[in-house]
Design goal:
CATH topology of one domain: Cytochrome Bc1 Complex, Chain D, domain 2
CATH class of one domain: Mainly Alpha
Radius of gyration: 30 Å
Shape: elongated
Strand content: under 5%
Distance between the termini: 100 Å
CATH architecture of one domain: Orthogonal Bundle
Order of helices and strands: HHHHHHHHH
CATH superfamily of one domain: Cytochrome c-like domain
Largest sheet: none
Amino acid sequence: MATNKRKFGFWSVVGLVLFTLFWVGLLSGNILWTSDTPPLEIIDDMDNQQKVKAQAPSSFFADGKATRDPVEYTVPRNGTKYNVSLDDADTKNINSIPVTAEVLARGKNRFETMCTPCHNHDGKGNGLVVQKGFANPPSLVRPDAVAYTDGRIFHVISAGQNIMSSYADKLSELDRWCVVHYIRVLQNGGTHPKMTAAPKTEKDNQTTAQAGTAKAASAQ
């Protein structure tokens, strides 16, 4: 009888542990379930708050917008206010930033940080938020975008366009011009149209000559 009691006690403990693990896993959301209802949260760790998210409507403000417009006549610290109109963008926005490897690297960094969620890494507009259902922005590599002047592209980044908001308060003027240069790289298939190849050195000339000699010898 003692042996039977020990076996019964052991399997009871095993069953209780498995039962407990099952419900812990189920309630914590770690076990697949057919319902779309979120798992039961004993302690929500502030996951659910009475807050207003960016670009969401809000009845708290009279205009119904959650995202607030900058206070009139103010500019960000160390920033400038962008006042150029679209009609003047081509002539007043002059890109004086030289095309260098450092500028393109900076532009790529800022583009991939701020622009790829919508425009994707190739600039064609199928970014992650678009894949999640957000509106697809126009491709940056389409022919009419390629025909834009640097000043026009700078204007769109600075003032916004359609549902795209202004990035003048998020990117400095220098960074915006760097992004313009990097967009030209995307439009030109990976190289900037104003970048010139580095002059060949004497070593490069010797290598080219040796390759030509070897090719001629193989042909004979």
